[in-house]
Specification:
The chain is an alpha/beta fold. The chain contains 22 helices and 14 strands.
Length: about 525
């Protein structure tokens, strides 16, 4: 493997590594690593309060394209990754860095034998490499963008479409009112495109074919998003940043790139031979070829969305990983309740649900949760999971009203949901699944696959959701407030209505799970004066 290493300036460059250790009360040294399709890259940094400083920017080329071209990583690819991580670990040790967060993206997601690499890396270095889903990548890019905008003292108003063009895939994110509400992964990448069409010997056919392929990808990406008017088109990625250095006049932390300038650049490059294109771009033939898919997708996204300018921020996935380590950060796989609820509402709209009904059901579920805390002892995170599940519990009706609870479960499982761990996503899916009909059973394989503590929480939250669901039989938000009161052997649901015969009938058929979980019967109590 080529031992390519890039370092940025460090004030203490001339000091031996053994002497470069931070004082106990000084900045905290950290390391984050991104294992991508064509390289392993790491930041060695220090965090002091809300500030961060990059000590070293490490780069090791690897070739993981066999992960998505042949379905398996070969021996050379695995060896290259292990050697790169060993080099990163050695460099990190010079700063006293022991804990390293490392993530892998699309090539490792697609490789059938990526588990072999993960275990080999763990045995060789002790580093746990996490293969992240598109939703987590989107969250990391979102956090990086948020920090950059804070630094620039800027706000992006309206609907922002953020696109990261990677080597193997493209992450598409919709940010609405400052909330990350929709993410999706597309199999379009700079390296992938070149692998797909490298057999085209004729230069003109190569460029035109990639351009046509990008046009179809752009239409597909925009077609899968909810209806919107794109106010800001933000595009990032290694090849995009290199393109900016060739096309944009002025460059900064957030560079405005004219779509027309990209059109002109592509027109000029498409006429050149591979060697001439490489010379014009100041790189080798492979590097110049990888710029074409990025440029083509940008120009077609601009046309389909109507954007004249594309904003290109100067950040990477590693900036998002560092953001997770700052004081007050939510941490890996987490977004706050406001973001999660915005995502859930977007799912309801996406699948044609009744948002007013969903919001009232969620409100009732959260009220019951808050008032029964002495019984279940759950915290804020579980409250958020219940809130999410209550909002989306009925989206399965989009497929078929019959067995809609099961349809809801696999829709949630199939969707990219930023801000939830894999286990939490499964929990939400099962909480929503058990809002009606059968309670959890021994033969329900997905439920039984959850760890025992998570199964217990699913049962508790599903029991609460059933009560909320049972109080809005007519789906007209007739009951908006509920007051819970526990007696010796039952839970009283006091509502502000006098005529509650229908609600009593409904709860009688849905309180069984609550009684099984909490050991209490449930009774609906009308407003006084009936």
């Amino acid at each position: 493997m080529s031992d390519a290493l890039t370092r940025i300036h460090r004030p203490d460059e001339d000091l031996p590594r053994a002497r470069r250790k931070p004082p106990a009360d000084g900045p905290r040294p950290v390391a984050v690593v991104d294992c991508g399709t064509s390289s392993v890259r790491a930041f060695l940094a220090e965090i002091h309060g809300a500030k961060q400083r990059i000590l070293e920017d490490l780069f090791y080329p690897v070739d993981l394209t066999p992960g998505f071209t042949g379905g398996n990583l070969d021996h050379a690819a695995m060896t290259g990754v292990v050697e790169a991580f060993q080099a990163v670990q050695k460099a990190a040790a010079g700063y006293g860095i022991k804990d390293i967060r490392a993530v892998g993206t699309s090539a490792l997601r697609e490789a059938a034998n990526s588990d072999v690499l993960i275990e080999r890396l763990r045995l060789a270095t002790g580093i746990e490499l996490e293969i992240i889903e598109c939703s987590e990548a989107a969250r990391l890019y979102f956090e990086a963008l948020r920090l950059l905008l804070e630094k620039l003292k800027r706000k992006l108003t309206g609907d922002t479409l953020m696109i990261d063009i990677g080597g193997g895939s493209t992450v598409v994110s919709l940010i609405r009112d400052g909330k990350l509400v929709h993410t999706v992964d597309e199999h379009y990448g700079a390296v992938r495109c070149n692998e797909l069409f490298k057999s085209l010997k004729d230069n003109r056919d190569f460029a035109i074919t990639i351009d046509r392929f990008a046009f179809g990808a752009a239409r597909m990406m925009m077609g899968r998003l909810p209806p919107m008017k794109v106010a800001n088109l933000v595009v990032t990625g290694g090849e995009v940043r290199r393109l900016v250095s060739l096309v944009a006049r002025d460059q900064g932390l957030m560079t405005p790139l004219e779509a027309a300038a990209v059109d002109r650049w592509f027109a000029a490059m498409s006429r050149l031979t591979p060697m001439a294109r490489a010379e014009a771009c100041g790189t080798d033939e492979s590097g110049a070829a990888r710029l074409l898919p990025a440029a083509c997708l940008i120009r077609h996204l601009a046309k389909v969305s109507g954007a004249k300018l594309v904003q290109v921020p100067q950040f990477t996935l590693r900036d998002g990983l560092l953001a997770d380590l700052l004081p007050g950060a939510q941490g890996p796989h987490h977004l706050d309740d406001g973001h999660l609820i915005a995502e859930a509402k977007q799912l309801v709209s996406r699948y044609g649900g009744n948002l007013s009904y969903a919001e009232n059901t969620a409100s009732l579920a959260v009220q019951i949760f808050d008032q029964t805390m002495p019984m279940h002892g759950l915290g804020a995170r579980e409250r958020s999971l219940l809130h999410f599940a209550a909002l989306v519990h009925d989206i399965g009706s989009f497929i078929n009203v019959r067995n809609r609870h099961k349809h809801t479960m696999y829709l949630i499982q199939a969707c990219e949901i930023a801000g939830l761990t894999r286990i939490e996503k499964e929990m939400v899916a099962h909480i929503a699944r058990y809002h009606r009909r059968a309670a959890p059973q021994a033969h329900h394989a997905g439920y039984q696959a959850l760890p025992r503590p998570n199964r217990v929480v699913v049962g508790q939250l599903a029991a609460l959701l059933r009560l909320a669901y049972g109080l809005d039989v007519e789906r007209d938000s007739r009951i908006r407030k509920v007051r819970c009161e526990r007696t010796r052997d039952r839970l009283l649901l006091r509502v502000d209505r006098r005529q509650i015969a229908l609600e009593r009938w409904s709860i009688a058929g849905k309180a069984g799970l609550f009684q099984d979980v909490f050991g209490l019967a449930v009774e609906v109590v009308p407003r006084e004066g009936e």
